[in-house]
Amino acid sequence: MKKIKQPNITPLWYPSASLALTVITIAVVITYGHTLSVPFYLDDYSSIVDNSAVTQGINLLSLWDYTKLRIIGYLSFAINYSLHGPDPKWFHFTNIVIHIFAGFAVFLFISALNSISLFHQQSGKIRAKIFPITVALLFVLHPLQTQAVTYIVQRLTSLTAFFYISSLPCFLYARLTEERWKQLSLFAACFLFGSLAFFTKQNSFTLPFCILLLDLLFFPKPFRQMIYLFLALLAILSAFWICMAFFFQMDPFSITSLSSLTRETVLLSRIEYFLTQTRVLWIYIGLFFWPAKLHFDPDIAISYTFFSSDVLISLFLHLLIIGTAVRFVRRQPLVSFGILFFYLGHSIESGFIPIRDVYFEHRTYLPNLGLCIISGSVLTRWLPQKIGKKQAYLITCILLCILAMMTWKRNSIWDRPDELWRDSALHAPHKARPWNELAKHLLQQGDNSGALDIFLQTMHKSYGLNDTAPDSPKLDQPAAVNLVIAIAKKGEYEGALEVANQLLEQYFSPLNHSRMLNNKGNILFKLERFKEAESSYEKAINLDPDNYNAIYNLGSLWATQKKYKQAEILLKKIPPSSPSCNKRNKILRTIQKEKEEKK
User: Fold this and answer.
1) What pLDDT, on the 0 to 100 scale, is given for residue 470?
2) Taking CA atoms, which of 74, 330, 358, 581 is between 20 and 30 Å from 50?
3) pTM of the predicted model, to two decimals?
4) Element housing 114 (H / E)
5) Residue 419: how many CB atoms within 10 A of its CB?
6) What pLDDT shows up at residue 294?
7) From the CB of residue 397, how many other CB atoms can be counted at a distance below 10 Å?
8) Looking at residue 396, what is its pLDDT?
9) 468 pLDDT band (50/70/90 cuts)?
10) Reported confidence tier of residue 169, pLDDT bands at 50, 70, 90
11) Cα angle, residue 33 at apex, residues 27 and 35 outer, rounded to 5°
12) CB 410 within 8 A of CB 143
């Protein structure tokens, strides 16, 4: 085969790149700038606020012990926390910056990819200027991206995407340059970004396949060389698996080891999860092209059999689209790449690796790049040919403005937890979590009656408290704990105590059992049944030694009973990073003042 002439690829940094970065930055600041006041949600607490590996400072050893394969993402959380404490504003600021740079990485990647495509197709020059920035703006302005940016802990998703996408232009420039030192530097940068992506989130495992796809689509080569590439990739992945198995002290030749490392839950089989995802992918695609029904926590039914009409139709249409992309690889390489990239990006979280939550919008963040490429091709190439350039670019600008407004509006709802959860609950009326979270936030706002009504409506008869609504969503354990708080805050202490005692007879995890005992102790304290309250607090601490609320409450009880020495010893167990620390210090100062007065 004759040597292929190399295209004159756009330089890595050129004047319009600065303009593109400026435009992307302005667009993101306008649509995400008002999210700085958005509070923490769900996993933000367990992964950041209440995570000692994050709150104790920048300790690489602790972070490594906590999460080896996501250490880069959690290191960024630890840096945020060490600089500004549990202030969500700075976490959001970092997420917004990451989103800006992810958009700019998209611009550089599409600029390089477009140069190669133009070289092969001899398309118009104007598209070379408009296409990359259009794709980048579609990527950063689309409302489907909001969950990966505004939901703080999903920085893991956006940061992974930034590293992943950044490695791709490095590969393309390395593949095209003829200067040896520059080529080695770019390959090293590609490897570095890829490694950072992998140690942020494991959906980046598909990066070698993406690079192989780029090489096959945009750098023609003999069939024999393609076989060699596949064999080389297989050898690399085999070596990688062996390293990972030894890394986690597993047998690399054991099917059991491979199975345990490639599943997040045992509640779903691989086939059930895959069949469900054939439908979920169509929801993702639908939301990209019509993002009018976004909500935080959807309720997706599980598909248990292959022989159901929705699964068969979904799977057939996916195969048809993939087959079409392969068929037109030479004629429309960019569009084909966009389609294949979309499916490749979803292959980890929407494939055969079972995950407890079968659907979350943030999982579309990286794969959406493929749909942005397809949409950008339609807007900047096909549409100008049909209706003229001016009209096409006007439509593109209007579309981007509409997406920006929808993103701004979607982000606004995140600032009001009760509204966000009410929206999710109305979209998923039979799912427990949205109702439970809505009730919890109403409780925090002081709407005790509203919270109590929702808690009681969602009580399941398995707790023995609500036999009249067997089809209502089940009240989960944390919500059951909050139910007792809601009743007590209405001043109905005896009723709250009765409910707490009934719930404590059911199964609770040690963590939630400890929290329930702490709540029971608080009620007994209010009823001035101090001995029983003391016993309840002690049981809570025995179940969970890190229950600092129970430690504070017991120390406070002892302080009121003049048991100063016991109170001091106990209260000093509360670390400075705990939210109870300020209240603890106040009691300790009071105790010290009492001692000085006695002297």
Assistant:
1) 41
2) 358
3) 0.81
4) helix 88-121
5) 14
6) 87
7) 13
8) 92
9) very low
10) very high
11) 130
12) yes
Interatomic CA distance for residues 151 and 315, integer angstroms: 31
For residue 67, the one-letter residue type is T
Q: Which residue has the higher pLDDT, 250 or 57?
A: 57
Percent of the chain with pLDDT over 70: 83
Asked if 123 and 376 count as a contact pair (C-beta separation under 8 A), the reply is no
d(CA 504, CA 513) in angstroms, rounded, equals 7
Place 473 in a pLDDT band, splitting at 50, 70 and 90: low
Q: Rounded to an integer, what distance in angstroms lies between the CA atom of residue 314 and that of residue 343?
A: 14
**455/437 Cα distance (integer angstroms):** 10
Alpha-helical runs (H) found in 122-206: 125-141, 146-150, 155-176, 180-198
**Distance between CA atoms of residues 298 and 431, nearest Å:** 8
Give the Cα separation of 518 and 538 in Å (integer).
Answer: 9
Alpha carbon distance 335, 318 (integer Å): 15
In the chain the domains, ranked by start, together with CATH numbers, are 15-414 (no CATH), 417-507 (1.25.40.10), 525-599 (1.25.40.10)
DSSP calls for 340-397: HHHHHHHTTTTTTS--SSS--GGGGTTTHHHHHHHHHHIIIIIHHHHH-HHHHHHHHH
474: nearest Cα among 430, 426, 428: 430
Q: How far is CA 546 from CA 15, 500, 535, 580, in A?
A: 55, 21, 17, 12
Average of pLDDT values for 476-496? 74
Q: What integer pLDDT is reported at residue 407 of this predicted model? A: 96
Note whether 107 and 168 are within 8 A (CB): no
Residue by residue, DSSP assigns 250-305 as: --TT-HHHHHHHT-S-SSS-HHHHHHHHHHHHHHHHHHHH-TT---SS---PPP--
Tokens, residue 134? 């259009």
How large is the average pLDDT for residues 288-317? Answer: 89
Residue 75 one-letter amino acid: L
User: What is the C-alpha to C-alpha distance for residues 70 and 60, in angstroms, rounded to an integer?
Assistant: 12
Q: How many CA atoms lie within 13 A of 76 on its CB side?
A: 23
In the predicted structure, residue 122 carries a pLDDT above the cut 50? no
Q: Which tokens go with 278?
A: 């054939």
CB 201: neighbour CB atoms within 10 A?
Answer: 25
Q: What is the pLDDT of residues 184-216, one digit of tens each?
A: 999 999 999 999 999 999 889 899 899 989 988
CA angle 358–163–273, rounded 5-degree value: 15
